[in-house]
Amino acid sequence: MDHKKSLLIIPIFLPHQGCPHQCSFCNQNKISNTPSRLPSTSFMNREINRYLSFKRDPDTPVQIAFYGGNFLGIPFSSIIMLLDEAAAFVHAGKADSIRFSTRPDTISNEILDKLEPYRISTIELGAQSMDDRILSLSNRGHTAEDTARAASTIKQRNIQLGIQMMTGLPGDEGRQSIETANKIIGLSPDFVRIYPTLVLSKSPLEKSYTRGEYSPMSLENSVKLAAKIYCLFTKSGIPVIRMGLQASDGLEKNEGLVAGPFHPAFGHLVLSEIFLEKVKERLQCRQNVRDKEAVIHVHATGISKMRGLKNQNIHALQRMFRLKAVHILSDDTLRKDQVMVNIRD
After folding, report:
1. Alpha-carbon gap, residue 287 to 307, rounded angstroms
2. What would you report as the CA-atom Rg of the chain, rounded to the nearest whole angstrom?
3. Contact 237, 192 (CB under 8 A)
4. Which residues does residue 124 pair with via DSSP β-bridges, in sequence order?
5. Could you give the number of structural domains in the chain?
6. Which residues contact 168 (CB under 8 A, 6 or more apart)?
């Protein structure tokens, strides 16, 4: 299933289900705003039908997705119960396929053989890092080699592979995240997600933070790092389908967030940073731009990203280059990621 195209993903959250232990950064209940228990078949049925009621285009593909836990770590009888319920919608023609996220060390040919009767189209691996020291400090319980092996096994099955990575984990100074991104590129995933590490209440990381043993990245540094990683992936033809945690009620109200670079529009901030850097590069090549006007042309979809939240990119460019004015104009002949800059008196 092509993640560049629109699709309806119906999420069924399984917070902490199947997890052999709690990773240092994790509190899935706060992230998903869902209690830790397996959903009943009646709940699944209601939830799937609720999401299906939002579907407007009959040609939009539908995936039923199991998120928030370690899917292949839950008891096999429960896996089959969940898959049977999802498969009923696939067989009825109401959904196209099933996807799930799981730990790299749960993937094996044996388990995938058992899931062969189900229409599994996508598997996401919670790799988080490709640095074994960082994985150990985060209490992940698996290695970078486990991720590489699992990725290869999934791709041999012609199942779409997604990989999730995190920035700012304990022991990560930014360089390790860049290295992780490059190693993930070597695994040729079909898409990736990038999440900055947050200190969540009742997570082991909260204790480390309280004791002064862990300091989260600032929002500014986290955005700049994610922008570099985003560009690495996209230059390699790998779509980044999400950056930053989705704002649940708990995170929005700061009930579950202790510290860290959370922003409800984190992905927008990253894309705005990328647009800003492109314009800065072009202006730095120009002579005598002070007290002149910059006219920036972008595709219509890039207007808000180029402006930045509250026009912060416009203000930054005026300040850095002493520009008299900055104008942003729409030009749909340009690619969505393209920027063209003209200077006028």
Report:
1. 23
2. 22
3. no
4. 101, 162
5. 2
6. 177, 196, 197, 216, 217, 222, 225, 260, 261
Q: Which of 335, 336, 341 is nearest to 304 (CA)?
A: 336
Which residues are CB-neighbours of 80 under 8 A, at least 6 positions away?
A: none
Task: Clarify whether residues 37 and 107 are in a common domain.
Answer: yes
Average the pLDDT over 40-45 and give the result: 94
**For residues 231-245, average pLDDT:** 96
Q: Both tokens of residue 103? A: 């730990």
Q: Are strands 293-298 and 339-344 parallel, antiparallel or unpaired?
A: antiparallel
Range of the domain at 283: 274-344
Q: Name the average pLDDT for the chain.
A: 92
**Do residues 164 and 230 both lie within one domain?**
yes
Q: Per the domain annotation, does 65 fall within a domain? A: yes
User: Are 136 and 236 contained in the same domain?
Assistant: yes
Q: What is the mean pLDDT of residues 196-205?
A: 91
Domain assignment present for residue 93? The answer is yes
Residues 6+ apart with CB under 8 A from 154: 107, 112, 123, 125, 161
248-282 pLDDT, tens digit per residue, is 645 665 668 899 999 999 999 999 999 999 999 99
- The b-or-e profile of 18-46 (16+ CB within 10 A means b, else e) is bbeeebbbbbbbbbbbbeeebbeeeebee
Q: Is residue 3 part of a domain?
A: no
Helix (H), strand (E), coil (C) string for the chain: CCCCCCCEEEEEECCCCCCCCCCCCCCHHHHHCCCCCCCCHHHHHHHHHHHHCCCCCCCCCEEEEEECCCHHHCCHHHHHHHHHHHHHHHHCCCCCEEEEEECHHHCCHHHHHHCCCCCEEEEEEEEECCCHHHHHHCCCCCCHHHHHHHHHHHHHCCCEEEEEEEECCCCCCCHHHHHHHHHHHCCCCCEEEEEECCEECCCHHHHHHHCCCCCCCCHHHHHHHHHHHHHHHHHCCCCEEEECCCCCHHHHCCCCEEECCCCCCHHHHHHHHHHHHHHHHHHHCCCCCCCCEEEEEECHHHHHHHHCHHHHHHHHHHHHHCCCEEEEEECCCCCCCCEEEEEEC
Residue 66 lies in a domain: yes
